[in-house]
Write a structure and sequence with these properties.
Elements (H helix, E strand, L loop, with lengths): L2 H20 L2 E6 L17 E5 L4 H4 L7 E6 L3 H12 L3 E4 L6 H13 L3 E6 L13 H9 L2 E14 L8 E13 L11 H22 L7 H7 L1
Parallel strand pairs: 1-7, 2-5, 2-6, 3-4, 3-5
Antiparallel strand pairs: 6-7
Helix pairs in contact: 1-3, 4-5
Length: 230
Amino acid sequence: MGVMARAVLGFCLGIVARLWLMTLRLELVIDPALEASALDTCQERRPWVLAFLHGKQWPLLAWQRRRSTVVMVSLSKDGQIQSAALSMLGFTVVRGSSSNGGARGLATLVRRLRTGTHDAAFAVDGPRGPYGVPKPGVLLAARAAGAVIVPMGSAIVGGKIFARAWDRFALAWPFARVSVVLGAPIEPADLGSDEVGVGKLATAIASANAAAEAALGLAPRPPAVLGALS
């Protein structure tokens, strides 16, 4: 498949995704520490780095935001399709990943954040895992841009979790119930070193996912399981 064909395919998938996501019944849960008035506006505030697990991308896309959000997508051929789809959904896309072009992509993302008009979204354990283990890039971006990190979680009622996939990808069927949780903002300076920081961030994201499950009345999972299967 050529470059143009992949771009067209991605655009078409973006249209399908937009229509699909419009059917989802969303419940948004916001930590009181976040200013609700700043969620969907372009008012001046510090940028956010939204941090979530790779397998939670689909339900999180149900939250349609007015403030521009920049995401980093891999330089692979599949990444080109994903890039076109995300652009169609209104995201600003930069290319790169932890394994290819990451430094250049991260620098571009940080420049966007510093303009004050964008937030950023990171699938912290992507693109290939290990599951639930954040990469340090999210911490580097937040520190360099003077941003706060917002842990995000989600849950679905009416969908499928692909348990054999490395990321336990969660797909919400049309008209499914979806909860999205925005946790308390985290100052990058409070996370300490990269090694300590990724552990603290993983815990915060697991807590957000547990809160999302509770919002839908789902039975809580044991703490030992939350980090592996949430």
